[in-house]
Amino acid sequence: MKKLLALALTGAMTLSLAACGGKADTTTAADTAAETTETTDTADAASADGETYTVGICQLVQHDALDAATQGFKDAIVEALGEENVTFEEQNASGDSATCATIINQLVSDNVDLILANATPALQAAAQGTDTIPVLGTAVTEYGVALDIDNFDGLVGTNVSGTSDLAPLDQQAAMLNELFPEAKNVGLLYCSAEANSQYQVDTVQAALEELGYTCKQYSFSDSNDLSSVATTAASESDVIYVPTDNAVASNTEIVRNICEPEKVPVIAGEEGICAGCGVATLSISYYDLGVATGKMAVKILTGEANVSEMPIEYAPEFTKKYNPELAEAMGVTIPDDYVAIEAAE
């Protein structure tokens, strides 16, 4: 009997040691995998929780700047959360503000987890369409103007936040002065349907008038009257300034075909417009702006941050760029500290 008990006890100890040994091997393998896999804490949490997300995107119109912002936004989210964990419902309003409202209503009906509103009319539609679903704007110049907030301090304080593409407007005015110190009359061409365009031209006009220029605003309501307004502006101006205006961005060929033959150079508010019809710009990377917006979205989706407590973020860097083809065609000498815009392939 004693021998039988001893054998039983020895077998039990052997099984116990084997079980402990198996557990130790598993833990070591997991630790090794964790050390060799580079991933963000947010992505780890999402993967561990098995969470999936649906993100709605309403983009006002298709053009280079807005396209780049949307792509940067998506890339940042996919990198953090994994492609398998996020679904994008992406729609384009083709430049129609009313269509933005229709798109937003559909996204709200679909109960998406977050909405990206790309450009001011999209943001305005989203802010009106929902007060519960988190909304992030991008490529929006001034949120206080867009959302009619008096004394805006950088925090919306509701379900809305995002990133701004506002460049230093006084520095854009200084750029015009640097390149065209002998000019007298500056035309400011913009779409009157875009509140942020009005804000930009008013600010730039004040800065230019302090520098001694005579300024006149030339507004058009939509692409149908852009040609006639641009023709008048070109005939009455030595230089034309165009802000980050989506209507112009979608119709740069019209502006170029009018201004280039008249030898009237255009200073643009962003790189995409400059590449199409401008001579120079002080601009940001819209892709990087989209990435910054995507990182904000990840924090909201994973519960790391509350959208109502997130202030508007701004682009950290601005670059002086020029259009080599148009600069040469108009005989404009560009300083050495400007970066050439590469021609599209």
From TrEMBL:
It holds the Pfam family ABC_sub_bind. Keywords: Signal. PROSITE patterns: PROKAR_LIPOPROTEIN (PS51257). CDD domains: PBP1_ABC_unchar_transporter (cd06325). Residues 1-18 form the signal peptide. This is ABC transporter substrate-binding protein. It comes from Anaerosacchariphilus hominis.
